[in-house]
Amino acid sequence: MNVSMPWRGTSHPLTSGIDADERAVMIFMYGGIALAAGFAWTSLGKLFLYTSANWSSGISIRLESTYRATSSEVKVRLYDESAASAVSSSELTTSGTTLARSRTSALTLVDGNEYRVQVGVQSSAGAIVGASLIGLPPS
Question: Which parts of the chain are beta strand (E)?
């Protein structure tokens, strides 16, 4: 993978947009990874051990990522390494060519399981800036 920083000299896309009442855990962040064409899921970042006691009761956990496609599609998902499967409803997809931030609906994580971000590219290329797990308080 080639490394690029398409936002150098501007504010970083992951440093804004988190409200004061949201809790974020960065599970993958890099200076921008250029993704090669040809679809295959690629694991990124370090493992994240989910411990439910570290999250307040009623918190809604979501995956958020900032990424883009060159053309075609780029996909981001949360992968449960302990269960060896993708987390249900965690896949984000974009065909947009400018960096954009997307967030999933509420995810169900298993206490004690380890998770990591995976990305996939369809027939073209793209880039991912980072991904976070966001905890939203009950409304």
Answer: 2-3, 23-35, 42-49, 60-69, 74-80, 85-86, 92-94, 100-103, 114-121, 126-136
- On the question of pLDDT at 61 being above 70, the answer is yes
- CA–CA–CA angle 11, 27, 25 (5° rounding): 75
CA distance 128 to 74: 9
Encoding tokens for residue 57? Answer: 């009761």
User: Can you spell out the DSSP letters for 53-78?
Assistant: GGS-TT-EEEEEEEEEESSS-EEEEE
Q: Tell me what the mean pLDDT of segment 100-115 comes to.
A: 94
Signed CA dihedral, 16, 22, 23, 29: sign only: negative
For 29-136, CATH number?
Answer: 2.60.120.260
For the chain, which residues make up each domain, given as ranges? 29-136
Chain centre to alpha carbon of residue 105 = 13
Handedness of CA 30, 94, 84, 41 (dihedral sign): negative
Which is higher by pLDDT, 32 or 82?
A: 82
